[in-house]
Amino acid sequence: MKYNKVYIAGAGGMLGSYVYNKYKQANCEVLATDIDVNEDWLEYGDIRDYTAIRKQIIDYNPDIILNLAALTDLEECETNYDNCFATNTMGAIFLMELSKELNIPYVFISTAGVFGGEQDVFADFDKPDPLSIYAKSKVYAENSILEYDNAWIFRAGWMMGGGSKKDKKFVAKIFKQIENGATELNVVDDKLGTPTYTGDFANSIFRHTTEGLEYGIYNMVSKGDASRYDVAVKMIDLLNLDIKVNKVDSSFFEQEYFAPRPYSEKLVNFKLTVIGKNYMNNWQDSLTQYLKEFYEK
């Protein structure tokens, strides 16, 4: 499937440049927007401003809408839930309604965080049990978007990518401590998940949307799983640094990271694997690639 005109919302974040480049390299015309215009190829667009976004999209008349826009800071979502739901739920649903109006495909990015409870590993069809405001905002969006027949929902894990300017997640936070001269790191080992490289994630989005993957909801994380501690140890090893990594439990950071988080956010790409379209790489290989791309110096 070839798209002549592609609209990407929220393209200024850690995933955006990868997705933008995939479609540009395929000779698609791309209108990429964000509230943070941090690249010369970006235009301003706020999915909470329904009137302005509707005019922008209707005037552009795209063949597909990809929604990467999200408020992902869990603590920010807990304290500013109006903005959380306006962005992650209402804005996402509004873009879906515009896709329906134009009769074009829609892509929405969800999260492993939609699951809670004591289960260890979650497949695509397991029932969400959101604990945090952020997770709830994503579940509400999922439920509405699934009613549109031409929508793909891709659930990501612990995202890493974009480099120091755009990566706001765990890998970037660890690297910032390293840059600041840390000789020891305190890292939790009681939270489990599936690290997910944005470069692989973007490649998979592109392939699925152009190869004609059946519409629906899919887990799409890197292969393998880890604790936060495992990721930090792997980083230190790859960077060949003499830094001690201490295991701590979540209570060590309970004042800074107060939003509720499940014990496990480990996903398996069950549906994609069964149909032979799991294009995600192992998280350790992807972390190696990411560090070489942005942090080797």
So what's the oligomer here? single chain
Strand content: 15-25%
H and E order: EHEEHEHHEEHEEHEEEHEEHEEHH
User: Which outline best applies?
Assistant: globular
User: By helix and strand content, what is the structural category?
Assistant: alpha/beta
CATH level-4 homologous superfamily of the domain at 5-162 and 195-222 and 268-277: NAD(P)-binding Rossmann-like Domain
Q: Any idea what the CATH architecture of the domain at 5-162 and 195-222 and 268-277 is?
A: 3-Layer(aba) Sandwich
CATH class of the domain at 5-162 and 195-222 and 268-277: Alpha Beta
Radius of gyration equals 19 Å
Q: What would your notes on this structure say?
A:
With 297 residues, the protein is of the alpha/beta class. The longest helix has 22 residues, at 81-102. The strands form 5 sheets. The protein has a 7-stranded parallel β-sheet with strand order 3-2-1-4-5-7-12, with helices on both faces. It starts with a strand and ends with a helix. The protein is globular. The protein has a domain at 5-162 and 195-222 and 268-277: NAD(P)-binding Rossmann-like Domain (Rossmann fold), CATH 3.40.50. Strand 1 (5-9), helix 1 (16-25) and strand 2 form a beta-alpha-beta unit. The chain has helices at residues 16-25, 50-60, 74-79, 81-102, 133-145, 170-179, 198-211, 228-238, 270-274, 283-294, and strands spanning 5-9, 29-34, 42-44, 64-67, 106-111, 121-122, 151-156, 158-160, 184-188, 192-193, 195-197, 216-219, 226-227, 244-248, 266-267. The protein is built from 10 helices and 15 strands. The model has no long low-confidence stretch (mean pLDDT 95).
